[in-house]
Design goal:
The chain contains one helix and 58 strands. The N terminus is likely disordered.
């Protein structure tokens, strides 16, 4: 029994030994054939890697590439290796991108075919290339790369149709059109979808059936023109958007559905003029005239636009206004949209060019024929005025037998390289309505900021005045022995394009492209009447300019006494004062007057250590223009004769509804002052308070941008002299709820000049009584 059992046990052990030997032989055979512990099957270790998909692609910045990266791993006998690790790596800086894990590196394993696929790769925000993403395998010396390009995002630009109006229920005259570009090159075959609002003021495209949306494809130049668009029956302002799959930011097209009953202005020609600062912080001016029909549609016009643009890239041109529209804003002000073909202005404009030619103004009506203006868009901020054009008669038609004179001034701003104030009298006394330059009847004074140069009583030599055209455009070509105004290379010394409001009021804007001065100046000319006198008169001055500290503003009431002395009070602000400045009482000052020209010289207008010198140019009808004549500052602006009896002002003198326009500067940092402008409607209650909730629109493009509907309030203490002191809350650009100190200088019950007297910011405002 024991022997038999031993035999059986030996048989079992033998079979186990045979199985063990067989298994060992199988393992040896597998190793001999090049097997890998990581792959399985019959392949050997990784020996080579190949790029098999995903190279040569391009994608718009911040968007995903279409095809993932593929890498194929093989052994030395070209067998696919399963389970091998492939590491994809993108550049650490510059044009690059990220994988699904949010980093520039990702590791993926090969499948049974030896292929590793990356996750989706997304371009970063830096355009450029080609650049390489690499794929590497441990143990394999050579890596492979995928060539990629990050293309700039496509840009949508409105090229036609924005800013126009149409009477409700009628088609818009100009096609809505945009251009799709990338790196400045038009992109063809791109779908563009135009979308109008689904309710309220809107319209429909001429699709089948008509709809508020339409999709069209760009042509080879990247242009996409929408089907004809018709206004619905609801009047108002709205925008149509244009979008593409490859443009992160849609384009907006501003439209107005107009109705005769809602036209903010009566039909006619309106002269406008504004000065301010563009988004590149360059001083600019614009003046012109546009035609409004009875429905509030702007049907044409012209303007002169001038921009200092750091002087080296300055632009100045006279150009047509093609169309535009008027509308009411949500807080009761008036919106004015003007369109030209000027690529400098409008969204995208400024020093980089590329604008759409569209200007947007907000206005507060003083009367049915006059409004105060501010630029209200993101490419510029400015202040100015709008007036109904009432006369286009030739200037001084009886010259030379009966000469006529115009008091005038022009000025630029602190942002210009050499701010200038120039004022004087132009006498039209020559043949064919020209300027003879004889007998010192055409004179001027000049003050160039901080240059130490103040020239007085300079003469114009023989000069010319053009004949007004159908828009009231007239050109003054002026020459002098004053070096900057000497004709150079056939250029007149100073060329002023004028836009006639009526025979007594002409807006002036320098045409720097055709004169020798090459400044960026805006101003006004006022017809003189007789008699010319000032004794016993008081004038409220509202002057803006600069000094060594930057922006400077000045407001005052100056009285010319019969003994040739000057009395009154003034305030000035350049943000360097300490605390709140009360009105400074004038302790001394004298004046002289040339009754032939109406030119008044005021010297030594002094309060404590502060002294100013001025030139005034009288019109004889209560108006005057003024510039400073100091070697350390440059100021210019209007001077209004006080018409209230002396000492008779009370709180009731400032009572009723007023339109307000203000200009100034605020400091987003301690070393920078940037322009701001505001316009709106306020109410004075006649007992010492101002109200005007939600009506003031302020533009500070360098920080908060266009800000509509600011709540404004104020308070004042009345004084018999018409110099009130108080506060205004709501016009501080950085903090609208901040209470700021102001002095109010009353001209009469219809007009008030206000100046900020603290260090919050510079603000110089004008209140004009409105209906």
């Amino acid at each position: 029994m024991r022997g038999i059992r031993l035999t059986k046990l030996s048989s079992v052990a033998s079979r186990q030994s045979i199985l063990l030997v067989t298994l060992l032989l199988a393992i040896i055979a597998t190793v001999a054939c090049g097997g890998s512990s990581s792959g399985g099957g019959s392949s050997g270790p990784p020996a080579q890697v190949a790029q098999t998909g995903g190279s040569g692609q391009s994608a718009t910045v911040s968007t995903a590439f279409t095809t993932p990266f593929a890498a194929t791993v093989e052994d030395s006998k070209n067998n696919p290796v399963r389970g091998a690790s492939v590491t994809f790596t993108a550049p650490a800086s510059g044009p690059s991108g990220t994988f699904k894990n949010g980093t520039a590196t990702e590791t993926d394993a090969t499948d049974s075919s030896g292929i590793a696929m990356s996750s989706t790769f997304t371009a970063n925000s830096t355009a450029g290339g080609p650049y390489n993403v690499t794929a590497a395998v441990s143990g394999v010396t050579a890596s492979v790369s995928y060539s990629l390009v990050n293309t700039p995002a496509s840009t949508l630009t409105v090229t036609q149709g924005s800013g126009q109006g149409a009477v409700v229920g009628t088609a818009f005259a100009s096609t809505l059109q945009v251009q799709v570009t990338s790196a400045g090159v038009g992109l063809g075959n791109v779908p563009v979808t135009f979308t109008a609002p689904s309710s309220g003021a809107s319209g429909q495209f001429a699709t089948n059936p008509p709809a508020a949306t339409a999709t069209v494809t760009t042509n080879s130049g990247g242009l996409a023109a929408a089907p004809a668009f018709t206004a619905n029956t609801t009047a108002g302002l709205y925008t149509v958007t244009a979008s593409t799959p490859t443009s992160p930011t849609p384009a907006t097209i501003t439209l107005v559905n107009a109705s005769a009953s809602s036209a903010p202005l009566a039909a006619g020609n309106y002269v406008f003029a504004l000065s301010g600062t563009d988004a590149a912080n360059s001083f600019y001016t614009v003046a012109g005239v546009f035609t409004v029909d009875g429905n509030g549609l702007i049907t044409g016009g012209e303007q002169t636009f001038s921009d200092a643009s750091g002087d080296s890239n300055a632009i100045s041109q006279r150009e047509p206004i093609t169309y535009g529209a008027l509308a009411s804003t949500s807080n009761g002000n008036m919106l004015i949209i003007l369109n030209t073909q000027n690529p400098y202005i409008g969204p995208g404009g400024g020093s980089a060019l590329g604008g759409n030619g569209q200007e947007t103004f907000h206005a507060s009506l003083v009367s049915p024929s006059k409004a105060l203006l501010t630029e209200f868009d993101n490419w510029a901020t400015s202040s100015g005025e709008l007036d109904l054009q009432t006369s286009l008669s030739p200037l001084c038609p009886s010259a030379p037998a009966t000469p006529c004179g115009y008091a005038f001034f022009i000025s630029s701003a602190p942002s210009e390289s050499a701010p200038l104030s120039l004022g004087g009298v132009i006498t039209i006394d020559g043949a064919d309505g020209g300027i003879s330059g004889m007998n010192m009847t055409s004179v001027f004074d000049a003050n160039q900021s901080q240059s130490g140069t103040t020239l007085q009583n300079q003469a114009f030599s023989a000069s010319s005045v053009g004949t007004p055209d159908g828009f009231g455009y007239v050109q003054f070509s002026l020459n002098s022995t004053f070096a900057p105004l000497i004709s150079v290379d056939g250029r007149p010394g100073l060329v002023l394009n004028g836009y006639i409001i009526d025979a007594g009021h002409i807006v002036l804007i320098e045409d720097r492209q055709v004169d020798s001065l090459k400044g960026t100046n805006l101003g006004l000319a006022l017809l003189q009447t007789t008699p010319i006198s000032i004794s016993g008169d008081s004038y409220v001055l509202s002057l803006n300019g600069s000094d060594h500290a930057g922006g400077l503003q000045f407001a005052s009431v100056l009285t010319a006494n019969s003994d040739l002395s000057v009395s009154g009070s003034f305030n000035y602000n350049d943000l360097t004062g300490v605390g709140i400045q009360n009105p400074l009482v004038i302790s001394s000052g004298t004046y002289t007057i040339d009754t032939t020209t109406g030119r008044v010289t005021m010297t030594g207008v002094t309060s404590g250590p502060i002294k100013f010198n001025f030139q005034l140019y009288l019109t004889g009808d209560g108006n005057a223009l003024a510039i400073s004549m100091d070697s350390t500052d440059t100021l210019a602006g209007p001077a209004y004769e006080q018409t209230e009896p002396s000492g008779s002002f009370t709180a009731a003198s400032f009572n009723g509804k007023y339109s307000l326009a203000a200009t100034g500067e605020a400091s987003p940092t301690t070393s920078v002052e940037d322009e701001l402008d505001a316009v709106g409607a306020v109410t004075a209650d006649g007992v010492g308070s101002l109200t005007g909730a939600g009506t003031v629109d302020l533009n500070w493009i360098f920080n908060t941008g266009p800000t509509p509907g600011l709540n404004l309030s104020g308070a004042f203490t009345a004084r018999p002299t018409g110099v009130f002191t108080g506060t205004i809350t709501g016009m501080d650009a950085a903090a609208p709820t901040t209470q700021s100190s102001f002095t109010y200088y009353l001209v009469d019950t219809t007009k008030v000049v206000a100046i900020e007297t603290d260090k919050n910011q510079l603000t110089l405002g004008l209140f004009e009584q409105a209906p």
